[in-house]
């Protein structure tokens, strides 16, 4: 039986697309390095001082690269542009205190979670009792600082819509604004709040033991890159098994 020309063309196109489909894990191995997108403004997970990156997830990225036998290259991005950079192939994986959520799962691949945390507040020392409930913060006279494009902003827009929301491009500027009295409350997560409370005696974490929400951090991988996703999840399992994650957390003041 002879095949119609249209069927032959369709079959050829399908075969070509299968052959041409890139495998990112293979590309990483061939090029000899993995690219990591990170904001560099979320201590203690990702921080850029203008010269180099540091933090827990930066150390994890270096560990991943070493396990894969490649180098690592970091690409600074923003919370707002996190998924866009992934879609545009600017980096192979996004890391740096990224909350796992359904909207991100629908746009990319998310790894397993590696730390459970919750939304809480960061305030000036001595003001914890004034801002320890949503009702106390959700008032027009209360200035709430959030970073643009992240889950902190979404939380504030949903639960603190009566407050005066002050939005910052750089997450590092929000705790500074709390200290300077430019905002009353910073919406943050428990690890970040505890970190700032430890390194700056002028700041206090609020509801760190009883956060308003519960979530997990994870890493983002381009949509459809199943082999790379499986490999990263495997390396995360190995980190837990060997205690590498605990050591890196302690090294970065997370324990």
TrEMBL record:
Q: Which SMART domains match?
A: PBPb
Q: Which domain of life is it from?
A: Bacteria
User: In its keyword annotation, does this UniProt entry include Signal?
Assistant: yes
Please provide the record's keywords in A-Z order.
Signal
Q: Which parts of the sequence belong to the Solute-binding protein family 3/N-terminal domain?
A: 33-255
Pfam families referenced in this protein's UniProt entry, alphabetically: SBP_bac_3
The signal peptide stretch is: 1-22
Similarity field: Belongs to the bacterial solute-binding protein 3 family.
- What is the protein name for this chain? Transporter substrate-binding domain-containing protein
């Amino acid at each position: 039986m002879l095949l119609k020309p249209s069927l032959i063309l369709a079959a050829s196109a399908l075969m070509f697309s299968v052959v041409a489909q890139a495998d990112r894990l293979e590309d990483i191995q061939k090029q000899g390095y993995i690219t990591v997108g990170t904001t560099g403004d979320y201590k203690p997970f990702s921080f850029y001082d203008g010269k180099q990156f540091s933090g827990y997830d930066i150390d994890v990225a270096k560990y991943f690269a070493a396990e894969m036998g490649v180098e690592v290259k970091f690409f600074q991005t923003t919370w707002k542009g996190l998924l866009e950079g992934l879609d545009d192939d600017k980096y192979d994986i996004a890391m740096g205190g990224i909350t796992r959520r359904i909207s991100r799962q629908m746009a990319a691949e998310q790894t397993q979670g590696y730390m459970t945390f919750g939304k809480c507040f960061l305030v000036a020392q001595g003001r914890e009792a004034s801002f320890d409930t949503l009702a106390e913060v959700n008032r027009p006279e209360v200035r709430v600082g959030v970073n643009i494009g992240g889950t902190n902003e979404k939380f504030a827009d949903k639960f603190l819509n009566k407050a005066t929301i002050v939005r910052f491009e750089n997450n590092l500027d929000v705790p500074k604004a709390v200290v300077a009295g430019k905002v009353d409350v910073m919406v943050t997560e428990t690890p970040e709040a505890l970190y700032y409370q430890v390194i700056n005696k002028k700041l206090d974490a609020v509801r760190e033991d009883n956060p308003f929400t519960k979530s997990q951090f994870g890493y983002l991988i381009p949509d459809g890159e199943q082999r790379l996703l499986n490999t990263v999840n495997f390396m995360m399992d190995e980190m837990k098994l060997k205690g590498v994650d605990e050591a890196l957390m302690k090294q970065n003041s997370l324990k």
